[in-house]
Amino acid sequence: MLKRREKKKGKDFEKIYDTHVEQIFRFVYLKVGSKDDAEDITSRVFTQTWKSVADTDIKAIKKPRALLYRIARNLVIDYYRKNRPVREEESKEGSVPTKKSSRPKQVPLEDVIVVDKEMRPDEKALLNSQVEEVKSALQELNEDYQNVIIWYYLDELTTSEIAELLEKPEASIRVLIHRAVESLKKRLGNKGKR
Amino acid sequence: MDKETLEKIYLLRKIRPERTWVSAMKKDILDSHVGERETERVSVWEYFAQPALQSKMKLAGAFVFLFFFGYLVLPLLPSSYDQVAYAPVPEVEEEVTEEEEDINVVPKDKEESVDVARKEQPVEKEFAVLKEGLYGLQRQVLGSMIKDEGELEVETWTDKDIVEYYIAKIEEEEDDSVQVMTMGVQEEEEKDERVEMLIEANENDDYEEAFNLIVDILAK
Predict the structure, then answer these.
(1) Which residues pair with A113 in a beta bridge?
(2) Contact between B140 and B133 (Cβ < 8 Å)
(3) How far apart are CA A43 and CA A41, in angstroms?
């Protein structure tokens, strides 16, 4: 009977995993910027979630997505604490020395972007650059602005769900979304002008 | 929000993890947790011996004990409830009719046995029992009168014997015109009525009434 229950719980967890793994990965990746670190953090998010529901009925969790995002946010915060600003002493050959940055080393988006098979190379390159541009602009925003843009536009969470995650009133979330978009737009405009 | 900015944001939706990595990670997570569970598996006794379950087990045991005690043992114990529940039902007193109220009325089938029983009782005892009240006095007087008349066997006479003796005497007086017994009775009808009542009382074994009538007849 124990095995049967475990099997059923495993299937329930699989459903949650399959539904939210891409969202969590994208959320974490846009935060940390590294594919390897994003995969590691995402793995830990689901491992912690699986352990936390080990002794309870997994179906009793009314909002699994909220739980996953909470764990992901905490792990990202821990990641930032461990990866404090590192001064880049080495620079690539021929390139301009980079400024001091608090962000981890960037990796090519080719490893994480889903590209159409029929896309030409120049189209792929254009897509990569565009995504990189938006990603960079997003990472320049504060944490709350990043979160609301990712959750509202990419993961399609409702304002009430975002309010619950950020523990803020729903009206504040709408204002936050507006300000976040305006801020992003401003940065994208600045990047475009460069 | 303008469309251009929105489209740029939507470009970020193309960021997705590798499918092979997703499948591998899922398997690793589920397998790792299953592995942990297998090593943590304990026996049934060890499971119930956990401190966290002890208080619950004690509480469950107390409820089970109270249930069986209250359901099985308590009904077996004698209690005031049983005494009340199984108390004897009081007998309902049957209504006694006027005929039954006459306790001196002996059913006809028992007359012979009663007469035999009464004849067998010694007269002295009869006289002793009947001393109280007018009934006893009357009988005593009548008995002594019979004795005075020379009836030697009067000691064994029953009430019925005495009454029948006097009825016979009264009837003899009527026939022989003897005035001894009927002296005092002024009117023929009244005397006849009393004699009839006397005869009837004798037939009904109402000896108290019969003695009253005899005394009344003799007194007048």
Answers:
(1) B15
(2) no
(3) 5
What are the DSSP calls for B57-116, one per residue? HHHHHHHHHHHHIIIIIGGGS--HHHHHHTPPPPPPPPPPPHHHH-TTPPPGGGHHHHHH
* Measured distance CA(B153)–CA(A124) in Å, rounded: 157
**In which band, very low, low, confident or very high, does the pLDDT at B70 lie, cut at 50, 70 and 90?**
confident
More confident residue, A69 or A6: A69
Which amino acid would we find at residue B200? E
Task: Encode pLDDT of B8-50 as tens digits.
Answer: 899 898 888 888 889 999 888 888 755 444 445 567 777 777 7
> Rounded distance, CA A30 to CA A135, Å?
7
Residue A98: which H helix or E strand, with range?
A: none
User: Which one of A2, A14, A130 has the shortest CB-CB distance to B11?
Assistant: A130
How many Cβ atoms sit within 10 Å of the Cβ of residue A24? 24
User: What's the DSSP call for residue B157?
Assistant: -
Q: Taking the model in full, what pTM does it have?
A: 0.50
Torsion, CA B45, CA B50, CA B56, CA B61, rounded to 10: 30
pLDDT of residue A45: 93
The alpha-helical segments, DSSP class H, found in chain B are 3-11, 19-40, 44-48, 51-68, 80-85, 98-101, 111-120, 123-129, 133-148, 159-176, 179-182, 188-203, 207-219
Nearest to A74 by CA among A39, A51, A45: A45
Express each pLDDT in A111-125 by its tens digit.
Answer: 666 666 677 888 888
Q: CA B160 to CA B123: how far, in whole Å? A: 12
Least confident of A139-153, B74-88, B202-216: B74-88
Question: B188 with B220: CB under 8 angstroms?
Answer: no
ipTM: 0.78
Contacts of B39 in chain A (CB under 8 A): none
Chosen from A24, A39, A71, A152 to mutate, greatest number of chain B CBs within 10 A: A39
Report the candidate in A113, A106, A110, A133 with the shortest Cα–Cα distance to residue A188. A133
Tell me if B9 and A134 make a contact (CB, 8 A cut-off).
yes
| Average pLDDT rounded to a whole number, residues B126-142 | 62
Q: Which residues of B touch A6 (CB under 8 A)?
A: 34, 37
Cβ contact, residue pair A131, B14, below 8 Å: yes
Pairwise CA distance, residues B209 & B205, whole Å = 9
